[in-house]
Amino acid sequence: MQLSMIGLGRMGMNMVRRLLRGGHEVIVYNRTPQKTDEISKEGALAVYSLAELAHRLTPPRVVWMMLPAGPAVDDHLHALQTLLSPGDIVIEGGNTYYKDDIRRAALLKEKGIRFVDVGVSGGIWGLKVGYCMMLGGDRATFQHLKPILETLAPEEGYLYCGPTGAGHFVKMVHNGIEYGMMQAYAEGFQILEASPYAQTLKHAEVAHLWNQGSVVRSWLLELAEAAFAKDEKLSHIRGYVEDSGEGRWTVTEAIETGVSAPVIALSLMNRFRSRETDTFADRVLAALRREFGGHAVLTAEKDHAG
């Protein structure tokens, strides 16, 4: 199937690679041409403007965007709506607030352009194991996109969640849960680190042990083991933990709907607090984000350097 990919960051680049391996024709565009040139050497068709992208696609055009949430998405959509035709499909795969999906879909509908929101989970590991995808929009459009989804996802790894916004809503809640899970692991290892047994316990060994049939086993715990194996005390990571918005949106939704969500809310508050202190628990959180998503970390050396 032919499609285009706009945005070749950590996720977009590897998604293109997986699509190419699945036999799809992928036309790629990135604001900076270096990444476009890089992936073109692996079989993607490079273009250097949105106008060229629209020209190279065969109607009904499929345009997948993997861009940072916010103005970048609106800017690209503003340009695309003048280049695309009725019946074409825009897929928004970034970590976008679902209410923005509803607004954007309405604007594109005026031009007859179809809009699909896709929450994508998998991080830097998605190339190897596939991407878990949550989709919102028109069901008929979802059916049309199945060949792409089946290539990107592992078996049973994608779901039509409902009308516009549903995909990113489900992804938002997914990330809120992720916040709480990561915080629980971080606090547990903080308690181990402060215990009388800290000199004999190895965090990597404990994480490995807990993944052997324990009720707290998980992929996140596997990633914790990998992080501890590299640096047992995480001494080269500063415990400064960013958030990309989904936790805030999940807590906001809980407030608006009157749902009690204290674990997710407190895990978000702890990320805010981490920017003022540097604890072992925060280094665990930072390390986990680096391991599953390739997110940048602040190093202890940089912190000490001033």
Describe the structure.
There is one protein chain. The protein is of the alpha/beta class and 306 residues long. It contains 15 helices and eight strands. Strands 3-2-1-4-5-6-7-8 form an eight-stranded mixed β-sheet, with helices on both faces. The protein is globular, with a radius of gyration of 21 Å. The termini are far apart.
Write the SSE topology.
Elements lengths: L1 E5 L3 H12 L3 E5 L3 H8 L4 E2 L3 H7 L5 E4 L5 H10 L8 E4 L5 H12 L4 E8 L4 H4 L2 E5 L2 H6 L1 H7 L5 E5 L3 H28 L9 H8 L8 H12 L15 H12 L4 H13 L5 H14 L6 H5 L2
Parallel strand pairs: 1-2, 1-4, 2-3, 4-5, 5-6, 7-8
Antiparallel strand pairs: 6-7
Features:
single chain; globular; 306 residues; 12% strand; alpha/beta; disordered C terminus; eight-stranded mixed sheet
Shape call: globular
Uncertain residue segments: 302-306
**Ends distance:** 51 Å
Topology pattern, helix = H, strand = E: EHEHEHEHEHEHEHHEHHHHHHH
Assembly category: single chain
Mean pLDDT: 95
Strand neighbour order, sheet with most strands: 3-2-1-4-5-6-7-8
Count of helical regions: 15
Task: Describe the structure concisely.
With 306 residues, the chain is of the alpha/beta class. The protein contains 15 helices and 8 strands.
